[in-house]
Amino acid sequence: MPEPSEHFAFLLSRRSVPARQLREPGPDDRTIARLLELAVRVPDHGALAPWRFLLIRGAAREALGALLVARRRELEPEAAPAELEKDRCRFLRAPVVIAVIARIARGHRIPKQEQLLSAGLAAYNLLLGAHALGFAGQWLTGWPAYDGEIARRLGLGPEERIVAFVHLGSADGASPDRPRPDPRALLSEWQP
Predict the structure, then answer these.
(1) Number of other CB atoms surrounding residue 31 within 10 Å
(2) Which H or E run includes 164?
(3) Cα 163 to Cα 149: distance, rounded to the nearest angstrom
(4) Partner of 100 at 20 to 30 A CA spacing, among 8, 142, 143, 189?
(5) Exposure of 162 by Cβ count < 10 A (0-12 exposed, 13-18 middle, 19+ buried)?
(6) What is the average per-residue pLDDT within 43-59?
(7) Strand partners for 55
């Protein structure tokens, strides 16, 4: 078993790899199942399982791109061709995309915020698991995550919302880490 310091070093090595740098191979069905096992092992006050997952791969990525282009044209009839092309290709870069969907139980004793945070942690665990299995990934949202019509076309219910589109694949080259804040500057200690 690795030393605790090795585990910590591994966790510190996790970074997002831009979706435009993700290539085949992506996770296969068995690996996706393993990633989902990890995704659901997050804090979940009340054991609500306030999340679900939507797998987008293969030709479905192209169909989703076409849907985005059509929706953008509805919203912005004068949209620039470059914006339409960006939407068409938005899900074509990574071989696998998993949409993490928060399922909010309204009126429940567990606050909506805690349910939403649990769904966010599920998305993060997908990224962390992918890193552990040698894949790379990026958590993206963008306008499609917040558009009600796109949500409806993806089969979301009225109490569901997209938290993340987790793009997964193999890194096409090295991805440098971004500058990180000094955590000590973010810590204060409360004194009564």
Answers:
(1) 18
(2) strand 160-171
(3) 16
(4) 8
(5) buried
(6) 94
(7) 98
Is the Cβ–Cβ distance between 158 and 151 less than 8 Å? Answer: no
Specify whether the CB–CB gap between 96 and 61 falls below 8 A. no
- Measured distance CA(11)–CA(41) in Å, rounded: 17
**Which structural domain range is residue 29 located in?**
17-58+93-173
Q: Which are the contacts of 104, defined by CB distance < 8 A and separation ≥ 6?
A: 50, 112, 115, 116, 159, 160, 161
Query: Could you say which DSSP state residue 186 is in?
Result: G
Our measurement of the distance from residue 104's CA atom to the centroid of its chain's CA atoms, rounded to an integer in Å, reads 17
Q: What is the mean pLDDT of residues 46-75?
A: 96
Confidence band, pLDDT 50/70/90 cuts, at residue 163: very high
Share of the chain above pLDDT 90, in %: 80
Confirm whether 75 is domain-assigned. no
* Residue 66 belongs to some domain of the structure: no
Does a structural domain hold residue 45? Answer: yes
pLDDT confidence bin for 106, thresholds 50/70/90: confident
Number of domains observed in the structure of the chain = 1
Give the tokens for residue 153.
């076309």
∠ CA 30-124-113, nearest 5°, is 125
Stretch among 33-47, 131-145, 166-180 having the lowest mean pLDDT = 166-180
CATH (domain of 112): 3.40.109.10
